[in-house]
Design brief:
single chain, 153 residues, seven-stranded antiparallel beta sheet, two-stranded antiparallel ribbon, 2 helices, 11 strands, globular
């Protein structure tokens, strides 16, 4: 059983062209020079890794890289869900991975013109789907909240 999530705006990203909400039980750490963010869950030994890239005529390459999943050999199934929020201009895809893959969830989000974010969750443990599934399901909700609350500056 995990403590119910309470989400709060991430405010310590002054140089990044986006904002979002994160679970208050997590620890948000970022690199100011490139806006790469690690959202750590110490009690679960897990981290969501977020990578920001500006779109500079390279959207097709960014999409191709984000959709290339290197752990498919270990995955039993990968389910994808389209995400679109016209009011905030956030469009993307959420991938849920089933099986003993290194990452149980991945996503990307973009405005298609200027901004692109990709993210994935990794556990500091041998990937055993049955063992990490409860923690993975909990953190997947946080990833969805990141996508839903994402706003470009």
């Amino acid at each position: 059983d995990y403590t119910p999530a309470v989400y709060a705006p991430v405010t310590q990203l002054p140089n990044c062209p986006f904002s979002f909400e994160a679970n208050s039980l997590s620890e948000v750490k970022y690199q100011a020079h490139d806006c790469d963010i690690n959202i750590e869950y110490p009690a679960m030994h897990a981290t969501i890794y977020l990578t920001y890239k500006p779109v500079e005529g390279n959207l097709k390459k960014l999409l191709k890289d984000a959709q290339k999943y290197e752990h498919t050999i270990k995955a039993d199934n990968i389910a994808s869900t389209v995400f679109a929020n016209d009011s905030t201009r956030v469009y993307g895809m959420f991938y849920q991975v089933y099986g003993n893959a290194a990452s149980q969830s991945q996503f990307y989000a973009t405005d298609s013109l200027r901004h692109f974010i990709s993210g994935s969750i990794y556990f500091k443990a041998v990937p055993n789907y049955d063992s990490i599934q409860p923690a993975s399901a909990y953190i997947e909700k946080d990833i969805r909240k990141i996508m839903e609350s994402l706003q470009w500056k």
